[in-house]
Structures are given as structure tokens and as C-alpha cells.
Amino acid sequence: MNFHKLRLMAFDQLKLQSYYRSRAAQYDEIYLKVERQSDLSKIRDWLPPKFYEAHVLEIACGTGYWTQYIAPRASSLFAIDTAAETLSIAKGRLDIQSVIFQIGDAYDLPKMPENLNAAFAGFWFSHVPKSRIHEFLKGLSYRLKPDSRVVFLDNLYVEGSSSRITDEDSEGNTYQTRQLANGSSHKVLKNFPTELEMHDAIKGIGHTAHWTCWDYYWAFEFRTNEFVCNI
User: What is the distance in angstroms between the CA of the first residue and the CA of the last residue of the chain?
Assistant: First the structure.
């Protein structure tokens, strides 16, 4: 990968981080959409048992919306996010001794417990550029024990409910233009991978994959391979 592309990716990542810092106070409004309440209720029942007594790594935990449902079922939970603003909200939402929140980069994971045997990322995978998917998955798997459960939860594109796609780049990444309450406008990378694309993404990294689909959301779960080389 050339230096120019690396600089562009770093710049896009900084823009995404800036967007979520600005959006922190209104982030959870996305969970108030009337048409999505049935799905969200089903997912709140479906998701937590996946992590029963597990030692969980949560990537891009945001305001801790999903952390609050997973943590009571898990033995421990180590949650990272790049934005101090969203982490502050997450910390105020949970007062559980077994949960640790820390600033962290999904592409350069910080030092963390060595007993992690599960991972979760809610509404993060769709923000990973296609050229960095393997890098992200390989780095994540390396931090987990062999045969760890990984669950990704994210959005389906639903016309009339999802923000309109306003741009696409040469790699096939799609973008939405989002308006915040402060009047600012942000171009945000937001991909909508298919079931086949998710299965392709974990080749050489995971096994026993399963795709679950609701009306507005999808979930993809798999087990990490027994051996993943250091990156």
C-alpha cells in the first residue's frame, strides 16, 4: 500500500473520530426510530446470552448502549473507543466492577487482558474501509484466545429509514452525508456488506460462521481459528 493511500486512510479515520466526538450527546437517538423498535427488542434478547460468562473485548463501544446489556451476562468486559466524549457517557451508564473502559484504536489495539475469549462490535464494521478489513480482523483475532466467539452487529440499508448513500469511492466504499444538531455536515464512510462478503472476509481467520438478519439489522458471528500469526 502506497504512502499516499495510507495518509488518505488516516485522514478519513480522523474525520470519522471527529464526527463521533461531535455526535456523542445525540448518538443514542438512532435507537429511538419508531420503525426499528421491534428489531431492537429482539436483538436485546438475542445478543447478551452469546457472551454468558465470557471475557469480552468490545470494539468501538461508543456510549455503551450495547455494553449495558452484554456486561451483566459476561464474566468481564474490556471496552475501547477512540472518543473520550462517548466513553464518558458509557462510564456513566454502567457501574459494574468487571467492566473496564479505555481509549483505544481498533487498528492498533492497546494492552489488554490475556484471557479474552469473545469479542463484540456494534455498528463498527460498516465503518471499516474495504482495504482495511483483513487488517482489522487479523489484529482482533490475534488478541483473542483460539476458538473465541466474535459477533458483529450492524445496519441493513433500508430505503426510507437509512440515511441516503451520497458517494462511492474507487474501492467500492459507500458514504452518507449526515447532519448534526449543531448544524454541521459530515461525510461518513458507511458500507453495507452482504452475507457472502462477510463469509469471504473471515477466510483464514475464522470458522463456523452464521449470519442472522432482521428487518433493519444484521449480525454475523464466527469462531476464531486456532492459530493467527502476529501482525
Answer: 15
Which of helix, strand or coil describes residue 77? strand
Cβ-Cβ contacts under 8 Å for 182 (sequence gap 6 or more): 22
In eight-state DSSP terms, residue 174 is E
Range 99-104 contact pairs with CB under 8 angstroms and sequence separation of 24 or more: 99/67, 99/71, 100/76, 101/61, 101/64, 102/78, 104/80
- Domains delineated in the chain: 3-23+47-224 (3.40.50.150)
pLDDT tens for the 231 residues of the chain, in order: 554 444 444 445 555 556 655 555 677 888 999 999 999 999 999 999 999 999 999 999 999 999 999 999 999 999 999 999 999 999 999 988 899 999 999 999 999 999 999 999 999 999 999 999 999 999 999 999 999 999 999 999 999 999 999 999 999 999 998 877 777 777 889 999 999 999 999 999 999 999 999 999 999 999 999 864 444
Q: Contact at 8 Å (CB) between 39 and 218?
A: no
